[in-house]
Amino acid sequence: MRREMFAGNWKMNTTHVEGSVLAEGIVSRLSTSGSDVVLIPPFTGIESVSNIVHSSSVALGAQTMSAQDGGAFTGEISPVMLKSLGCDYVVLGHSERRSLFGETSAQVLEKAVAAVAHGITPIVCVGETLEERESGQALAVIETQVRESMVGLTQEVVVAYEPVWAIGTGKVATPEQAQEVHASIRSVLSDLFSVVVAEDTRILYGGSVKPDNVASIMAQADVDGALIGGASLNADAFVSIIEYNKTSTE
Ligand code: 13P
Asked: Are 81 and 47 in contact (CB under 8 A)?
């Protein structure tokens, strides 16, 4: 049984002060939920958000990290540093990292191995561009990303499917499109690891998830949660996404 997960990727938004206010708003609005909730502030907000969430059930994550433990790597942040601030998750291979900063699947794998070694669960992101979807290559592109970013990993990993064309655009994948890709990712995981690992691995959907579309996406058999960008910057919107069951039955 896979436990639902909702992770808010704040991207390069919020000062540490704004981040504290947002985290407080989220923690105070959240009723004990049956889902895992993860806040993912920029590096500068991790410590202040950590102080707010540490006594709650809300977990903390980072948006990327170095594969190195420490040393002469100016500008980088290591898994040791993240773990010491209470980060249990790290987003790896987000499409913005892949497209704007040239991050490759090989680097994502190296970072994922380092994260696991430090007890941090990687949230490995994959997704196709509009061009790749329109030319019928979406599933093949995603399969390659999953294999190259995850081969040989031995510990629990979360996968996030984020179609690049749906990120920050207001264009959400249809529930059927999401389900098709999620089922395909699960079968790749089964081949790469085992049926048991594939069945236990959570696959999140990301890309313009909002309070009014979350229920139809979550209704899909292979969608286990969401990675939320824009809507996670608003405490009310983020909490109504997490509590979509309540909202939709009220
Ligand atoms: P949006 O929810 O703003 O489309 O962002 C999705 C995303 O990239 C989360 O990592």
From this structure: no
Asked if 47 contacts 19 with a C-beta cutoff of 8 angstroms, the reply is no
Domain ranges within the chain, ordered by starting residue? 5-249
Domain 5-249 class in CATH = alpha beta
Report the C-alpha gap between 120 and 3 in whole angstroms: 18
Distance in Å, CA 174 to ligand 1 centroid: 15
Which residue's alpha carbon is nearest to atom 9 within ligand 1? 229
Of the two residues 156 and 99, the one the predictor is more confident about is: 99
Residue-wise pLDDT for 18-36, tens only, equals 999 999 999 999 987 689 9
Tell me the CA–centroid distance for residue 71 and ligand 1, in Å.
32
Ligand 1: residues whose CB is within 6 Å? 9, 94, 162, 167-168, 206-209, 227-231
Instruction: Indicate which residue's Cα is closest to atom 2 of ligand 1.
Output: 229
Tens-place pLDDT, residues 59-74: 999 999 999 999 999 9
pLDDT at 13 over 60: yes
CA of 72 to the centre of ligand 1 (A): 32
Q: How confident is the model at residue 250 (pLDDT cuts 50, 70, 90)?
A: very low
pLDDT for 249 beyond 60:
no
Q: Which residues are known catalytic residues? A: 94, 162
Ligand 1, atom 1, lies closest to the CA of 229
